[in-house]
Amino acid sequence: MPKRLVAVLGLLLVAAGCSPGPTPVPVPSPAPEVAAACADLIKALPAKVLDQDRRQATPLSPLTTAYGDPPMAMTCGVTPPAGMAEAQSQCFEVNGVGWFAKEVQNGFVFTTIGRSLYFEVAVPSKYHPEANALTDISDVVHKFDKLVTPCT
Q1: Helices 32-44 and 133-144 meet at what angle, rounded to 10?
Q2: What is the DSSP pairing of strand 92-94 with strand 52-55?
Q3: Which of 16, 35, 26 is nearest to 59 (CA)?
Q4: pLDDT on residue 107
Q5: Helix and strand tally (H, E) in the chain?
Q6: How far is CA 123 from the centre of its chain?
Q7: Minimal CA–CA distance to 71: which of 46, 49, 93, 92?
Q8: What is the predicted pLDDT for the residue at 87?
């Protein structure tokens, strides 16, 4: 094998070892009409969030995607998180979309509030302030996830 080809293959193997592979994201089981609307929302999300490239989620699903390393996981069609019903008055808006924030061990999980679909965004603390990720996706959420009740 020519030395140049060996060098190129070696570089490809090193690059593959450094690039993040598919990230595990749990897949919800919403009603068929919710799944169809969610698939459109996920498909319309931008190529980058917080300057992080979109990456493949595993298992493959039209309801999930991820960005960056560590991954910001996005899932549509989730069930409302515990505490959300009491938190309607605590929601905050980003570009006209209401969000419920729950602090977790390594960041925040944001879930749309007052919309027909529940869309969840898990953002690791590496991307502090984590809510900034919502600015990159709120326009798509606003377009594909119908407003039911505005933040109060």
Answers
A1: 130
A2: unpaired
A3: 26
A4: 96
A5: 3, 10
A6: 8
A7: 49
A8: 59
